[in-house]
């Protein structure tokens, strides 16, 4: 049980984010504690991916504050956030299709300067993702969709994250691949990595998470434990496909 006085690993306070000319996120508050898996669920265009991009530093914050491990990070460039242990697996994976699997993995460790530690982490990642080990010398663009998603996660893990941001990891994958992917994500969480998950498959997201937030039109409209949201009639109707 988490002590209530322990400050969160990640805390958003009044965060507002613009996506081009559009105000996509309107002053949201959100918190995630060390060791938690927390999900953001909601319809397309709700502001979920924009929120992750702002946390990672891909998009600037127009207003509000993002604190990570007790430090205000919303003005830091992305690479400094990565150095502090925050890694994003973006929607669409963001792989370099013409580079090999091994080259893509090495890019995940670009902020690190201890080759031995990187080599040890690479071995752990390949043990977690055996299909990726078999394809180290293939171009990333030749992998199947499921393999590409595993590679994107493996690349992020090479940054040795304390907090992993996952944006729509199941998108475009067959159901059997989604199950395998979520088993891998659960293993990562059990190994102590905190996870903030954006996922269209709300049922799977809530099954994996301890807590969750519902977003709509750039606002947090509901939050609670995963069990509370699973039992909420509005959530069941809107996101779990139940009448």
Automatic annotation (TrEMBL):
It comes from the Bacteria. Residues 10-242 form the ABC transporter domain. GO terms for molecular function: ATP binding. The keyword Oxidoreductase does not apply. The keyword Protein biosynthesis does not apply. Keywords: Amino-acid transport, ATP-binding, Cell membrane, Membrane, Nucleotide-binding, Transport. Gene3D superfamilies: P-loop containing nucleotide triphosphate hydrolases. Belongs to the ABC transporter superfamily. This is ABC transporter ATP-binding protein.
């Amino acid at each position: 049980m988490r002590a209530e006085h322990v400050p969160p690993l990640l805390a958003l306070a009044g965060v507002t984010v613009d996506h081009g000319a559009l105000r996509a996120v309107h002053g949201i508050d959100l918190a995630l504690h060390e060791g938690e898996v927390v999900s953001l669920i909601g319809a397309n265009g709700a502001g979920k991916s924009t929120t992750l991009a702002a946390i990672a530093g891909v998009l600037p914050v127009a207003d509000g504050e993002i604190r990570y491990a007790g430090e205000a990070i919303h003005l830091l460039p992305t690479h400094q956030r990565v150095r502090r242990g925050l890694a994003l697996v973006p929607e669409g994976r963001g792989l370099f299709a013409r580079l090999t699997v091994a080259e893509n993995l090495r890019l995940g460790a670009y902020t690190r300067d201890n080759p031995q530690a990187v080599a040890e982490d690479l071995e752990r990642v390949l043990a977690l993702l055996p299909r990726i080990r078999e394809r180290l010398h293939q171009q990333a663009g030749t992998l199947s969709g499921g393999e590409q998603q595993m590679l994107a996660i493996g690349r992020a893990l090479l940054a040795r994250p304390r907090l992993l941001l996952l944006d729509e990891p199941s998108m475009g994958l067959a159901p059997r691949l989604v199950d395998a992917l979520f088993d891998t994500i659960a293993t990562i969480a059990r190994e102590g990595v905190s996870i903030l998950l954006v996922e269209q498959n709300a049922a799977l997201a809530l099954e994996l998470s301890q807590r969750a937030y519902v977003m709509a039109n750039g606002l947090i409209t509901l939050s609670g434990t995963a069990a509370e949201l699973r039992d909420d009639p509005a959530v069941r109707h809107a996101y779990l496909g139940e009448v």
